[in-house]
Amino acid sequence: MESFLQSLNDLNSTVNAIVWGPPLMILLVGMGIVLTIATGGIQFRRLPMTFREVLGKLFDKDSGTGSVTPFQALATALASTVGVGNIAGVATAIFLGGPGALFWLMFSGLVGMATKFSEIVIALHYRERDASGIMRGGAMYVLSKGLKMPWLGSVFAMLTALAAFGIGNMVQANSVADAVFASYEVPRQATAIVLCVITAMVVLGGLQRIAQFTTVLVPFMCISYIGGAVFIVLRYIDRVPEMVTLVFESAFTGHAAAGGFAGATILQAMRMGIARGLFSNEAGLGSAPIVHASASTDHPVRQGLYGIFEVFVDTIVVCLLTGMVVLVTGAWTSGANGAALSAKAFEIGLPGTWGHLVVSTGLITFAFSTIVGWAFYGETGVTYLFGTKAQLPYRLLWVVFVYLGATGSLQTVWGIADTLNGLMAVPNLIAIALSIGLLRRLIREFFSVPR
Q1: Is residue 167 a contact partner of residue 181, using CB atoms and an 8 Å limit?
Q2: How far apart (Å, rounded) are the C-alpha atoms in residues 29 and 23?
Q3: Measured distance CA(437)–CA(439) in Å, rounded
Q4: CA distances, 52 to each of 47, 49, 138, 426, 445 (Å)
Q5: What is the per-residue pLDDT for 414?
Q6: CA-closest candidate to residue 217, choices 92, 94, 72, 324
Q7: What are phi and psi for residue 255, nearest 5 degrees?
Q8: Nearest to 257 by CA among 346, 332, 322, 327
Q9: Secondary structure of residue 352 in the 3-state scheme
């Protein structure tokens, strides 16, 4: 059995290196650039309107057709997107790629805004209600209804349903159990039971309960983490100009070894920054449009603006602040990596035990929010494949896998889930590329009326 698992790991490592290698990075970033041009730089030109739309209408009543409010859809998408990658992933990018990785991470976020906007707009155009009355959409529906490729839609739905158990469930549950044990020495089995109970209370209630839960959890977890990071940046404000210079120079010249940092080339900085950025904001992977498609809105483009805001919060705010904290505190030269590096940076920057508390709370809430949000993504995949009768069994399995993830060793699961998650991008990018004409028409239609 051990030799079989090792062979499986080796095989998946080879496939994963291809899936998350330079070709996919080039495709995702390239599509972001193409869509930035095709939409006329909508993420820049319409950013003020995006903030008015999202922040100015938080408490407005529903308009149009859908299952949840636009903000509930955004909160659920952010719950899935803002995760452990925002803490550990950013630190890993800097550890392996140097300070310049932060520049390329931001670059991936800027072009990713156009990708996220576009895939949401297209998904809403082809959405439909399932037999239980829930509005559903995503690349599987675009490929089936719009592009007449139901077989490829089924491939995307299968990848989503399977990847969800790993990347959105077991890996996150394991991160929560690790964080709780490391911080409070609570046994993993106890954490697993509590996680299962809370997950069941939320997920078994379907989309409505998930959306209600995330609208409370997401603002809390983002504000608490951002607050701690902003405090540190302000405390070391005199180092910010030096940090900015360091980031730009390292992005285009690489960085020599310094302290516990082993050194990095320009290519390393670019690859790690872009890869971690795309992994964090999921632009182009096709996950977030699944829940955005359920929003009550009068036009696809209006909800697409929420996608721009989603990437802005995830990458331009949360990831950037994490990177700034790691750099201005000097923790990046300590030799620590991943979540340990972020924790060290916050412990340096905040007095007493506040740094440890902010990071541990962030890891726990960010990971759990991903469990809740990805439950709907996976459920939509099985609903597309097998109909509404598969929803309850999938939700029950979701709770079981939370326990398995919190108590088990996940090296194999993590690797395979990571590969499946990356493979989701292929059919999704095909759906976007073949729908650019529709995208441009919907944008012209929406903005032809003064907004």
Answers
A1: no
A2: 10
A3: 5
A4: 9, 5, 26, 33, 20
A5: 67
A6: 72
A7: -145, 130
A8: 332
A9: coil
Residue 438 and residue 146 in contact, taking contact as beta carbons nearer than 8 Å: yes
- Quote the pLDDT of residue 63: 63
Phi-psi group of 75: left, alpha or beta (phi > 0 → left; psi -120 to 50 → alpha; rest → beta): alpha
Distance CA 439, CA 37 (A): 12
Question: Among 103-117, 118-132, 216-230, where is mean pLDDT lowest?
Answer: 216-230
Overall fold of domain 2-58+65-446: Amino acid/polyamine transporter I (1.20.1740)
Q: Who contacts 256 (Cβ-Cβ below 8 Å, separation ≥6)? A: 263
Distance (Å, whole) CA 397 – CA 268:
39
pLDDT tens per residue, range 18-43: 777 788 888 999 999 999 999 999 99
The ranges assigned to domains in the chain are 2-58+65-446
Q: What DSSP string describes 58-82?
A: TTPPP-SB-SB-HHHHHHHHHHHHS
Amino acid letter for position 150: P
For residue 280, give both structure tokens.
Answer: 């964090």
> What pLDDT score does 320 carry?
96
pTM score of the predicted model: 0.93
Neighbours of 342 (CB within 10 A): 30
- The two three-digit tokens of residue 21, written as one number: 């290698």
Burial zone of 31 (CB within 10 Å; 0-12 exposed, 13-18 middle, 19+ buried): buried
The whole-angstrom separation of Cα 185 and Cα 116 is 39
Say which residue the tokens 């859908």 belong to. Answer: 66
State how far the Cα of 79 lies from the Cα of 344, in Å rounded to an integer. 25
Best CA proximity match to 358, nearest among 231, 243, 169, 240: 231
The SS3 call for residue 135 is strand
C-alpha closest to that of 138 among 283, 308, 287: 287
Residue type, 354: W
Average pLDDT of the residues in 78-85: 85
List the helix and strand counts (H, then E) for the chain.
23, 2
